[in-house]
Amino acid sequence: MKIMTTYKTKIRDSHSALANTVGIYRQAVDFLIGVALEEWNALKEIERSLEKQRAIECVIHHTKSNPCPKYDFDSRFGKFPSYLRRAAITEAVGKVSSYKSNYANWEENPQGKEPGIPVAGYIYPAMYRDNCFVRTGTYTARLKVWIRNTWDWLDVQLR
Q1: β-sheet bridge partners, residue 136
Q2: From CA 106, how far away is CA 116, in angstroms rounded?
Q3: At what angle do helices 49-60 and 15-38 cross, to 10 degrees?
Q4: Less Cβ crowding at N or C end of the chain, within 10 Å?
């Protein structure tokens, strides 16, 4: 059996770098919500969430085999880490799926206010171990954050 745990801890410094990272992530999710809404007819036919993630990634991410994606995510969010991009895609698809379900229910029984178009809201990026978070000591860690106009590692003090 493999036991996984999560916990939260206070970071004593570097609040502006973390705020910038969260802001960029939320902007990316908002952008991806728009993409998911536009591509919903194709997405709703896909059953597995990983395949939905790949479908969105194909229309937003520039690669050698995909030189002209339909939506220009990469120029707007340059050097956006792939694990955060995929987490943002999953978040956006989940929000759009929920919205579409709520809207269909509202259309069947139109009581109350019509569901609003989803927005990122107060979401935070997951700091995946080894990709975004490395523990360097008992009270220190390195986080991958948006700082100095690039994605870079930042040493932080933990309380």
Answers
A1: none
A2: 11
A3: 100
A4: N
Bridge partners for 76 per DSSP: none
Phi, psi angles (nearest 5°) of residue 101: -65, -45
Using CB atoms within 10 A of its CB, is residue 118 exposed (0-12), middle (13-18) or buried (19+)?
Answer: buried
What are the E-state strand segments in 4-132?
A: none
Looking at residue 71, what is its pLDDT? 92
Whole-angstrom Cα distance, residue 88 to residue 5? 22
Q: Residue 143: what residue type? A: L
pTM: 0.86
**Which contacts (CB < 8 Å, 24+ apart) does range 140-144 have?**
143/14, 143/18, 144/81
Q: Which sequence spans correspond to the domains of the chain?
A: 15-126
CB 140 within 8 A of CB 11: no
Are the CB atoms for 60 and 47 separated by under 8 Å?
Answer: no
Amino acid type, 158: L
Please state, in angstroms and rounded to a whole number, the distance separating the CA atoms of residues 86 and 92.
Answer: 10
Rounded mean pLDDT, 115-142: 86
Task: State the burial class of residue 121 (Cβ atoms within 10 Å of its Cβ: 0-12, 13-18, 19+).
Answer: exposed
The mean pLDDT of the chain is 87
How many Å apart are CA 103 and CA 82, to the nearest integer?
31
